Amino acid sequence: MSNYESFFSSNPSFPGFERNQELLNCFCKKNENHKIVLVTSGGTTVPLEKNTVRFIDNFSAGTRGSASAEYFLRYGYAVIFLHRNKSLKPFTRHFGDYDFLDMLEEDECQNGLIKVKSENVKTLLPILVDYIQAKKEDRLLLIPFTSLTEYLWYLREASFCLRTCGKRAQLYLAAAVSDFYIPQDKLPTHKMQSDKGAPSISLHLVPKILVPLVSQWVPQAFVVSFKLETDESILLTKSKAALRKYHHKVVVGNILQTRKTHVVIVTNDNSYDIKLTEREQKDGIEIESKIVNDLITRHIEFIQ
C-alpha cells in the first residue's frame, strides 16, 4: 500500500463529507462542458488530540485564493472554492470587520428600511453584480475544510469529479498545506494536561499528494501548484524541482515578504516574473488578476 493510500485508510472520512461529495459530483457534471477550476485556499490544521483543543496551524488568511476565485469567475470559469473554514471568500473578502456595516445607513424617507450610502455604491455595486451573476449561473461552489484530513479527502474527491472535464479542468492549488501530521493512532483522545509535563510530539511527513493527483486522479487536467519560500536564492531551484518530480504544468513561486507584489511563473520551458508597478499598487490592482490572466492564457493553449 502506498503512503497516500495508507493515509486515507488510517484517516477515515468525517461527518458532512457525503453531502459535500454529492455537491461536488453535481457541480462537475453540470459544468463538464465548460472551463472549470478548483481553487484551494487557506491553511490546514493538524490536531494534537482526537477531541481537538490544540492544533498546529499553517499561515494563510486565504487572500490569494479568494481573490483568484473572483477573477476566474469574471473570465467565465466555473469555480470550486475549497477553502479553510472562516478564511476569506470571494466577494465577501472585501468587507472585513465592520466595513460592510459602515457602508449602510437608515433610510430616513422610508421607516424600517436601510440603504447603501451614496459614496459606497461605486465600491459595492460591481462586487454585487459579479456575485449575482455567478450565483445566477451556478458557477460557484464553496466547500469548507479545517483539518489536513478534511482538505485531502475533499481534494481527492474533487479531483475524481473533475476527471469528466478532461483538459477543461484546471487545479489552482493555493492552499497552505501542512508538511507534517500526527497519525490517528498516535493522538491522545482527550486534551493534553500540562500537569503531566511537556508532551513529546512525533510528527510524520504528509504523503506527496501531487504524485497521485497528477498521474492518477485527474491526469488530463491543467495543474498549478504554489511554492512559498523565505529565501529567494532557492525559490527557482525548488520550483523547477517540483515540476520534474510531479510532472504538472506550472509552479507559481513567491517569497513571503513580497508575495503581494511579485511572483515567478515557472514552467518546464522557462520562467518569468509577474510584478505590480508602483502605479498599479496605488491604483489598487491585485497581483492575482495578473496571475489568473496569465494562467488562463496558458490553459486555453493547453486545451487547444
TrEMBL record:
Residues 34-89, 171-279 form the DNA/pantothenate metabolism flavoprotein C-terminal domain. One of its GO terms (biological process) is coenzyme A biosynthetic process. SUPFAM superfamilies: CoaB-like. It holds the Pfam family DFP. One of its GO terms (molecular function) is catalytic activity. InterPro entries: CoaB-like_sf (IPR035929), DNA/pantothenate-metab_flavo_C (IPR007085). It comes from the Eukaryota. Belongs to the PPC synthetase family. This is DNA/pantothenate metabolism flavoprotein C-terminal domain-containing protein. It comes from Triatoma dimidiata.
